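Researcher: Batch entry, complex prediction.
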Amino acid sequence: MPLQLAWRILVDQKGRTALATGGIFVAILLIFVELGFFVAVPQGGMLIYDHLRFDLLVCSSKYVFQSQSGQFPRARLAAALTVPEVAQASPLYLGGGKWQAIDGGLRLDIAVIGLDPKAGVFAVPDIERQIDVLDSPDTVLVDGATRSLFGSLETGRVVEIAGRRTTIGGRYKLGTGFLGLGVALASEANFFRMFPGRPLDTVNLGLVRLKPGADPDQAARALRAVLPADTRVFTRPELVAHEVSYWTIRTATGLIFGSGLVVSFVVGIMVLYQTLATQITRQLPQFATLKAIGYSDRYLDGVVLFEAWLIMAVAFVPALAAALAIYALVRSQTLLPLALGVSQLGAVFGITLVMATASAFLSLGGLRRADPAEIF
Amino acid sequence: MTSARAIARFTDTRFVPLALRNLLANKRRLVRSSAGIGFAVLLMLVQLGFERGFFDASLATVRQLDGDLVIMSASKYQFGSADPFPPRYLESATKVAGIASVSPVYASWQEFFWKDPAGDKAYPVQAFAFDPDRPVFLLPEVRAQAARLKEADAVIVDRLARSFLGMASQTGETEINGRKVHVVGSFALGPDFMRDGTVMMSPATFARLLPGNPENAAAMPVEFGIVKIAPGEDAARVQQALRSALPAEIRVLTKPQLVAFERDFQADLSSAGPIFWLGTVVGFVVGMLISYQIIYTDLSDQLPQYATLKGMGYGTPYLVRVVIEQAALSALAGYAPAWLLCLLVYRAIGAVSLLPLHMTWGLTLLSLGLTLGMCLLSAVLAVRRVIAADPAEIF
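Model: Structure tokens for the complex:
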């Protein structure tokens, strides 16, 4: 069995094997981290949507991305309700204002989300628990991830938002996504008091919920047939694709972390190739002997391939553990939703497998030079 | 001549570059080790380049301001967020001694929606307005084309803006905030993570395009006052004089202070810095692992030779020196091709991502230092083998 021989070779040279495993460990870790950022950075743009209850999103045909959504007539929501599959259509308003302490100081940009407190649009326990607070005049809930620059977020603090004295009614835990440095929630009435210039009959986003069992794609088609050309309808998968592609371009994430991924991949091949090539050179007499006693080239190739796979398999588990630790650290430090999905885990494993196989094939050239006649 | 003297003569090895010969002895091995170290170098250079590129992109506009001092609202917390102040403060500023000129800059980051000429969507862009006779930017193309902005509704655009804005063409017509504008020229600035493109115009055009259409352009609130001091005046002294002439809600910064102000904001509030530093550290660790492996292997292969040298009477310090020299040479052999390759990588990634990636002396020295550091550290770790080499064992 080539596997047994490969195992023996590796165990025989523990120091060298440990070194190679360390190298592959770092390469795999690097792949985990780059892929994590690659997936997570554009996800920042989905954070708010991921915590809203809706099956279909109605927005203006001028929609660019969440904070550049454009406005459309509120009457479109009433029209949406005429589609039989639609159970509920709730408006969501987005506005940007300046936040300033009562006694002056920096004028910071804050994103304000206006909503109907009765509609239950946010699937966030913290918000649902405190939603009645929004019924009080000039009162908002603020996201706990609002940056420390904004000062205390204690309940009861009065600040100016968009030039209007506003009371912090509570804090919730969600994250600001890519809406900006700070986010506040307000009821419709309070929202329009803050932004008096905005027409009352337009909304930014329409959150449509379907009746149980309705097919979202079919309902989206029905909705598009009913609504005029000034609106656009997204299903959830369509919205994810749209937002992620926008942020991938805007943040140059694809390139930055994509190129990082390629470099880590090449580094991994380099490290493993280095180990295998050295090992083959050093054990050329042994390999030549094996050849002389009748083992085929394919058998010897198999030994090298198994060596590569074994080293990879041994390095993979600690790399996974270290990656989870780094993900947790980054999550706590940067608010990026770095997480390990099954597909990502599979992708890293696949990449690693290709890496090990490629480096094994690269080093086979040395093996071919094993000539039984030469060594004695 | 006694044998002792003959050996003493051999020990004087100034003229035998042993480390270099060791390195060149096996070309295959040299290519392999240079490639390994080179990739680690490339990894570090790319990460460091991204980190610099990110900051350079977000500071690009600030750095292009043509002034010694900048007047702005004290409550302004970042360059790219509107917080204008009443124009009357600029009048008080002009009266301060030692000032050559004070030019108002009007700016908007959220309120100017540029329509893609080829499509029907509008996107927010960074907009600046200034007196066409006194362009407040250092960009040579802006200075050359500023006079064309006197024409009504004329704008010049950033041709390096993100492609979906359709700003690449130098002339043409489109709409800003639903009003027709003529593109009369372009300049090269580039986007960053917060803004996709930039347009510049005269204050009169700015006033017409601004939502709410202020009647009188001269009465519009001002975002920045760009101050040039008279020749021979001391910037710090004039800054002090301006501060005492203006109320507390106005801040006066020198241009370097404004750049530092914006850099601090970006460094504090964006995740980009830590992400790329993490990448650089990982590159260093990978590089150490690779170079340790290379040096360790080389030493193992050449152990009989080292033992022979020992047997001939060469001392451990000499052998250690050879190992260290060889490590430094390996570092250079890996560094040089990686540095050259990196120029290509910067160019390729810069062209697609529109990040300003440039090789600088600072970057070169920093990465060279890191490369030498990782190779020498590996050599020190691996040199024990040579010290332990026993001449009696090998034969």
